[in-house]
Task: inverse folding
């Protein structure tokens, strides 16, 4: 028992002695000091290719028709066009039947002309017309006729107090003369349309001169229907 205690004590003494000697000779090496902390190299960021495409703004083609400086939109426009693909200028307020009115009028006009009821310049005159009343001391009148419209074969009969002076005068571009002797008192000079020309009613310009060559009247009739007369009443003093 005594031997064991002696051995423990001896061993402890050796250990303490060794630690003391080692502690007096050993000097620790201090850690190196740096002036600044080392910089950390940033890790490069890898972008998603699809994300790049999403960041690019979309390009919109400009519409010149929406640009008010080029084609300003009117604030006073009435109605709207029905379609962009039509040549018609109709709006919502147009009457759809209006497009047929012109055609119907033209068809009616054509039918009237074919029936001899209308000439291109207007409706046929179906009544006798007066060209005036005159007083004169002249022995006779010189009456000149011509077709003032298109030359289409108009024919006129000349009478005085129901006596035929010329049974037929073909109206031309130039004047044709007929002398009518006057009786004392009342004289009624009649110019009857014998037909209507190829273009419609009978049309004529008339000039009347006395025996001194003085113009008494200058008149005309327009679109006179066949069988009707234009008349002048003359009182010879």
Result:
């Amino acid at each position: 028992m005594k031997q064991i205690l002696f051995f423990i004590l001896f061993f402890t003494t050796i250990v303490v002695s060794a630690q003391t000697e080692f502690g007096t000779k050993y000097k620790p090496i201090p850690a190196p000091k740096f002036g600044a902390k080392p910089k950390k190299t940033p890790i490069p960021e890898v972008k998603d290719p699809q994300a790049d495409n999403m960041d690019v703004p979309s390009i919109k083609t400009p519409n010149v028709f929406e640009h008010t400086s080029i084609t300003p939109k009117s604030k006073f426009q009435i109605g709207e066009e029905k379609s962009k693909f039509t040549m018609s200028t109709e709006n919502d307020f147009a009457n759809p039947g209006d497009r047929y009115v012109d055609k119907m009028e033209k068809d009616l006009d054509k039918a009237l002309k074919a029936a001899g009821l209308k000439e291109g310049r207007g409706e046929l005159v179906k009544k006798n017309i007066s060209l005036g009343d005159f007083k004169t001391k002249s022995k006779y009148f010189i009456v000149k006729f011509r077709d003032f419209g298109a030359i289409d074969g108009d024919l006129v009969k000349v009478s005085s107090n129901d006596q035929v002076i010329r049974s037929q005068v073909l109206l031309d571009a130039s004047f044709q003369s007929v002398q009518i002797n006057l009786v004392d008192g009342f004289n009624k000079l009649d110019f009857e349309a014998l037909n209507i020309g190829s273009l419609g009613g009978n049309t004529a310009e008339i000039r009347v001169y006395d025996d001194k060559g003085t113009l008494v009247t200058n008149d005309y009739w327009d679109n006179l229907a066949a069988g009707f007369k234009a008349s002048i009443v003359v009182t010879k003093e």
User: Anything to note?
Assistant: The mean pLDDT is 75. Residues 2-25 form the longest helix (24 residues). The domain at 125-236 is CATH 2.60.40 (Immunoglobulin-like). Helices lie at 2-25, 49-55, 101-114.
